[in-house]
Specification:
Layout lengths: L1 H13 L3 E4 L6 H18 L3 E5 L16 E3 L11 E5 L11 H6 L2 E6 L10 E4 L6 H12 L5 H14 L10 H11 L4 H8 L4 H12 L2 E3 L4 E6 L1 H4 L7 H8 L6 E9 L2 E8 L5 H6 L3 E2 L3 E6 L3 H11 L4
Parallel strand pairs: 1-2, 1-4, 2-3, 4-5, 5-6, 8-9
Antiparallel strand pairs: 7-8, 9-10, 10-12, 11-12
Helix pairs in contact: 2-5, 4-5, 5-6, 8-10
Length: about 325
């Protein structure tokens, strides 16, 4: 860690242009980790950092600190070249979307990630698959490097931790709670930040509620599959977490799968499990993720994907 931090500091000090990105359609960990890195470099090195994203940022994240600093990729000139590019929570190369062109043109790439990845991009990596959120890795670096923080950095790291653990539902190691305790001691207001995230559009809640009410149950009720068709997907803000949260509360349900018809013959799949790992099922569809929360995007019809998902869970 010490040697990597020395390289990190040196690269930031000597970079004339710096950019940060997470995965396409950023969630709380991806967006807030990127914004926290931006603020951290501003505060400790007095340097400007460009936060670039592709896809859509959910309405519930609109009020997080420094949200307006994030730039949609089309607002960044395509010929912009960065000395240093920092990737956070990106998972794998195919999740970068349109920002990949900026990453490829960068002189040096640093990554912070907690996902398993067989195609690592970073020249310098702060990766740890045992962490519940990428923000934990960033927080480790902050402590080891003795970087200064402010209230916005603390809040951003906390929101990232809250969202990627599903309000601390998906926790395997106690270090999550130690980090949360330290962040609260540093000034994070958990109640205020959770309320900040209760910010969905009415149309989104209605779409997700309808998908939950129309879900189908299989395997004697242990597997439930919900669907959001193309028309409803246009109204969806985010990844459909409410659908999975509602269905996951039903007694006897072990696995929740949400199928989202993003485009014709392009289906986004979200997998959730109470306790049994399902990341390998996601990987069989070309995706990946956490042990009990994973996803994939499949080029096939909605009906075919539904049948393939049912087959994948046979014997579970």
């Amino acid at each position: 860690m010490k040697k990597n931090i020395e390289i990190l500091i040196d690269k930031i000090k000597h970079a004339k242009s710096i950019a940060v990105s997470g995965h396409k359609n950023p969630d709380g960990d991806s967006l807030c980790s990127a914004l926290a890195i931006m603020k951290l470099i501003n505060l400790n090195f007095n340097k400007r950092v460009t936060v670039i994203y592709d896809g859509n940022i959910p309405r519930e994240l609109e009020n997080v600190p420094s949200r307006k600093s994030a730039c949609f990729h089309k607002h960044v000139p395509e010929d912009d070249k960065f000395d240093l590019y920092i990737l956070v929570d990106y998972g794998t190369r195919k999740n970068l979307g349109a920002v990949e062109k900026f990453v490829q043109n960068a002189d040096f790439v640093i990554e912070f990630d907690h996902h398993h990845n067989d195609d690592i991009i970073g020249n310098l990596c702060f990766d740890d698959v045992e962490k519940a959120a990428t923000s934990q890795i960033i927080y480790d670096v902050i402590r080891n490097a003795k970087f200064k923080t402010d209230s916005e950095i603390i809040d951003l790291l906390t929101v990232a931790l809250i969202t990627d653990t599903g309000n601390f539902k998906f926790v395997r190691h106690s270090d999550v709670f130690r980090d949360a305790m330290e962040l609260v001691d540093a000034g994070a207001n958990m109640t205020q930040l959770v309320n900040l995230l209760n910010n969905k559009d009415k149309k989104t809640v209605l779409v997700e509620s309808r998908a939950a009410s129309n879900a189908e149950f299989f395997m004697k009720g242990r597997l439930v599959i919900a669907t959001i068709n193309r028309d409803d997907y246009k109204q969806l803000d985010g990844r459909g977490e409410l659908v999975m949260r509602l269905l996951g509360q039903i007694h006897g349900v072990q696995y929740v799968v949400l199928l989202k018809e993003q485009r014709e013959n392009q289906i986004g799949i979200s997998f959730r499990s109470r306790s049994v790992p399902i990341n390998q099922i996601a990987e069989s569809f070309g995706g990946g993720g956490h042990l009990c929360a994973a996803g994939a995007v499949v080029m096939d019809s909605l009906d075919n994907v539904r049948e393939r998902v049912k087959d994948a869970f046979k014997g579970m």
